[in-house]
Amino acid sequence: MSMVDEPLYPIAVLIDELKNDDIQLRLNSIRRLSIIARALGEERTRKELIPFLSENNDDDDEVLLAMAEELGVFIPYVGGVEHAHVLLPPLETLSSVEETCVREKAVDSLCRIGSQMRENDLVDHFIPLAKRLSAGEWFTARVSACGIFHIAYPSASDMVKTELRSIYSQLCQDDMPMVRRAAATNLGKFAATIESAHLKTDIMSMFEDLTQDDQDSVRLLAVEGCAALGKLLEPQDCVTHLLPVIVNFSQDKSWRVRYMVANQLYELCEAVGPEPTRTDLVPAYVRLLRDNEAEVRIAAAGKVTKFCRILNPELAIQHILPCVKELSSDSSQHVRSALASVIMGMAPVLGKDATIEHLLPIFLSLLKDEFPDVRLNIISKLDQVNQVIGIDLLSQSLLPAIVELAEDRHWRVRLAIIEYIPLLASQLGVGFFDDKLGALCMQWLQDKVHSIREAAANNLKRLAEEFGPEWAMQHIVPQVLEMINNPHYLYRMTILLAVSLLAPVMGSEITCSKLLPVVITASKDRVPNIKFNVAKMMQSLIPIVDQSVVEKMIRPCLVELSEDPDVDVRFFANQALQSIDNVMMSS
Amino acid sequence: MNGGDEVVAASADPSLPLEWRFSQVFGERSAGEEVQEVDIISAIEFDHSGDHLATGDRGGRVVLFERSDTNNDNSNGARRDLEETDYPMRHPEFCYKTEFQSHDPEFDYLKSLEIEEKINEIKWCQTANGALFLLSTNDKTIKLWKVQDKKIKKIADMNLDPSRTVGNGTIASSSNSNITSSCLVNGGVAEVNNSLPPRGISSLRLPVVTSHESSPVARCRRVYAHAHDYHINSISNNSDGETFISADDLRINLWNLEISNQSFNIVDVKPVKMEDLSEVITSAEFHPTHCNMLAYSSSKGSIRLIDMRQSALCDSHSKLFVEPEVAGPKSFFTEIIASVSDIKFAKEGRYLLSRDYMTLKLWDINMDSGPVATFQVHEYLKPKLCDLYENDSIFDKFECCMSGNGLRAATGSYSNLFRVFGVSPGSTETSTLEASRNPMRRHVPIPSRPSRALSSITRVVSRGTESPGVDGNSNALDYSTKLLHLAWHPSENSIACAAANSLYMYYA
């Protein structure tokens, strides 16, 4: 048996390991199925490898998943499109296994292969496959069937098309909710392939069944179907068929279904068009904004801006604004937070006057919210209001909010606000910034939490970039350098980090005259951690400063460090010295 | 009384009293054999078809049984129906299928708590593709198991002579895998790949797999952990086939079967201050058909029905079922014995069965003024509540079950006895059975309502001879042999019940 030529040995091993006891080896072989196929040649791949794989269907799920994926790109190895159909049988078995992810991958691969197959092969092989799966004994096969109808349908004859539609309609009424869910999920895709004449009759009746399903989980998928079908139907049909369904859904008994409507609202509005949206969906939306269930209000509040963009300003002010006002003092912090994240976008929709009159008080109250996320969400979108009303009006209330967030108990909140500082700085301008926020930026350098100190150092760099080296020389550098004498070495390390970040922005001259001396002093620190960080920093400074400065100031310092008693200090000092040599050699 | 005619008649008219017979026993104890704590059965559950039965024990094991009386043609329902009409005497018989270790003892280092491996509940999920799925839970962790027949394979016709690898011993087999990986890493395959002839290489062959027999293999598919601060008392599958709930003393969580790293809290009865705690959740179950409805019971004797459509957090119930307060003397024990230990929906979902310490109650979910019927399970214990409290027996959690047709209910008691009640209106059927090979051994027909039957029950309970002198001898009552767990076959009159480590099956 062991008559395998030496160069073939690896492939022989690979083939044998398709059946190895170790799952990792089997997986490995399956992942390299294309190599095996090329070694066997197209004909033997078709006649031996594929049937072999078809029988190999009770393996572990991981192996099956990998197989389902590989087979999806296997057409070249079986001899091209005209032989693509041989790949269907193994995928058919895979699409009825019990593990969901394997089935989904098999269906993906089936669709991928089906979309490349020749029309008559589809008729001969793919359509029968779809029918077989839909008649499967277990729900798993029927679930998979729902996902391939849109590939099977277009090439079928009229008679078969009628049959396929009726099969799909049965799937929509299957006993198993899993099958009905799959049918609901795939209805949009299937509908897109169907002639418009049948769309209005067959598909709409299937859709209606799904919208009235007992199971909430099916109905909520039907909500998504509304949006998909809306794109396919004529505008007037949308209004007659879809609009009532959407309005009904928005008053469904189950909050999950209403949540779905709120979530899909924009797509649904697109489906029915602007005019019916104004007349019929505004009341529905207002109901959702005032829903009993906080989850629904959260979803609805998040869509306020998108929805208002479809409406004209008058309608928005008349109907939506009162709800927005209510939501800004909602009992659920998550609702307020969702509102805060989008409400800024309403400013351009409403225009300057309405914004000042109606929105500004809401912004201000949200800025003072007790829940930090709400405040953060407002601050993060300030640029949008700025465009409409200017920052002056806002800044008075803005500042206390920022200061409060900057000192929040939760470090993640502080971190979030630090990240907005450069943005705020650019919007507020130098003058405003100097007075109020400068001190805060320095204060963060001495935060108890490392992430905050690190972010604070980064922040300084971004500010220096924003306002230029001259400003930084005046407002940042002296204050930072002062802190290098902090008794705690961790804070000194933060300052070193800030210095190393500032150096590239400040340029060679300032670095040499102001920053480098501080670093050199730090190299005499008693803590080894500081010392080897100095060595690392110096390495990063080499490209910034002049060659002569390197030789005069950096090298002696590093040489000294390279004789330090601490092994880490010596290591990094030597590394830095080496990179000085490298730079010299290359120049 | 044992006449065959009567049995046939009984199966013809479902409302006639049933004649129970012993069917099978698994793990029967021989005389004098000591019961190992780990072997004690702690959960019993039939699957939806009734073709499989699962038991869990205190040792964390799950044992599966398969119906064996249908000519191993379990999937073919139509055929079985035919057989049943031909042979009305045929009753469900089960055989051992497989067992696996579902849970192991663990230690929670954060809370310094030992987590027992004891299986608290088993629930079957939808069967798919011939593979069985079930959920099992201990106090903290729920697991989803897949049990599937795997073929035992024999592989032949390898490219490389297997004897060569074997000959080289262990080193060869381990180096075998190294060869592959090293070749792949070095691009060895890729080189070969480039030089492959277009027609392929004829000397390579695929392994030939021959399979002979198959054996069931259980694999843990998902672990739903870290969601419960307190002990899980029940799990229940939703009719939508994709979600389930798990209930502990204070909270009920909703899970998706596919997602094990998050769950949603839907009921939370934890008071702000734990000192204010006055009642705990004792059991919870989904409605069999309405995906949005679930019921949970409390230690105060109430059952709440909640509608998940109303809101995400269902702290406010949509219906409350509680026994109207009875005037009369209240004892220290009134509240303790009111605690509901188990609830079960009837198959159609209209009726709900609940068990508290002394009674079995049937509720109509459309009527919240009081139970439709109340059955005394062991009223003769009433004078002994004090003893029962002293030895903690009063906190025993008896389960209850209902027949598939909704006409009868069963629940357990002490001395390995269990009782079957006719629950349809007008039915006076009550029988007391002992979990042994001869369930009717001490059967004394109980005339009508149990209150009158007090003396006869004590006679039933008293072990041993029929001597009337035993009456009133309380020492005969064995509190340690309690029948807590039992299940009714979903479509036939067959009951599986656990007496310590033994599983007894009865049919009628």
Automatic annotation (TrEMBL), chain A:
PROSITE patterns registered for this protein in UniProt: HEAT_REPEAT (PS50077)
TM spans (from-to): none
InterPro entries in UniProt: ARM-like (IPR011989), ARM-type_fold (IPR016024), HEAT (IPR000357), HEAT_type_2 (IPR021133), PP2A/SF3B1-like_HEAT (IPR054573), PP2A_Regulatory_Subunit_A (IPR051023)
Ranges for domain Phosphatase PP2A regulatory subunit A/Splicing factor 3B subunit 1-like HEAT repeat: 276-351
Organism superkingdom: Eukaryota
Keywords per UniProt: Repeat
GO cellular component, one term: protein phosphatase type 2A complex
Chain positions of HEAT repeats: 10-48, 87-125, 164-202, 203-241, 242-280, 281-319, 320-358, 359-397, 398-436, 437-475, 476-514, 515-553, 554-587
Pfam families: HEAT, PPP2R1A-like_HEAT
Entry similarity comment: Belongs to the phosphatase 2A regulatory subunit A family.
Record protein name field: Serine/threonine-protein phosphatase 2A 65 kDa regulatory subunit A beta isoform
Species of provenance: Cardamine amara subsp. amara
Automatic annotation (TrEMBL), chain B:
InterPro entries recorded: PP2A_PR55, PP2A_PR55_CS, WD40/YVTN_repeat-like_dom_sf, WD40_repeat_dom_sf, WD40_rpt
GO cellular component, one term: protein phosphatase type 2A complex
Swiss-Prot/TrEMBL keywords: Repeat, WD repeat
UniProt-listed PROSITE patterns: PR55_1, PR55_2
A Pfam family this chain is assigned to: WD40
Top-rank taxon: Eukaryota
Quaternary context: PP2A consists of a common heteromeric enzyme, composed of a catalytic subunit (subunits C), a constant regulatory subunit (subunit A), and a variety of regulatory subunits such as subunits B (the R2/B/PR55/B55, R3/B''/PR72/PR130/PR59 and R5/B'/B56 families). Interacts with SIC/RON3.
Family according to the record: Belongs to the phosphatase 2A regulatory subunit B family.
Stated role: The B regulatory subunit may modulate substrate selectivity and catalytic activity, and may also direct the localization of the catalytic enzyme to a particular subcellular compartment.
Name this protein carries in UniProt: Serine/threonine-protein phosphatase 2A 55 kDa regulatory subunit B
Upper classification of the organism: Eukaryota, Viridiplantae, Streptophyta, Embryophyta, Tracheophyta
